[in-house]
Description:
With 160 residues, the chain is an all-alpha fold. 69% of the residues lie in helices and 2% in strands. It is elongated, with a radius of gyration of 19 Å.
Amino acid sequence: MKHTTPIALLMGAVIGGVVGWAGQWILVVTGNPALTPPITWGVALAALGAITLALAWPIRSHVRAEKARGPLDPFYATRVVLWAKAGALAGSTLTGVGFGFLIFFSSRPVISSPALWQGVVALVGAIVLAVAALLAERWCTLPPDSSENGGESVPEGETL
């Protein structure tokens, strides 16, 4: 399994930004009120980032340990890596959505301060999720000189 590529993260952010801005624009043009993200959206995304790091910490501790402490559960490690990869992609997409919301709210003739601040909180929460998930994904990577591959060296590291 390969690490999440920057191009995938960038594409998710761009698509999320376009969808966020265009969705708000369509709502307003059709006479509906614009959506304002609740504060709990940003808080929940940041909490998901913290949970992702907490799930990856035992794997990081096991990989970084000098002494062999027994085998690592490969199913747990696989689940955490997939969770982290999904979190990185979702976090980048939601970062784009939050940025699209901010652009939309900033471009209005009358700027609603509460909506702007709620958009900032949503954007920060999405960034926290994306960064935490990318960090957790790196934590689940075996070092290049790892002996867990039967003694053969892996040049770039291997994702568990």
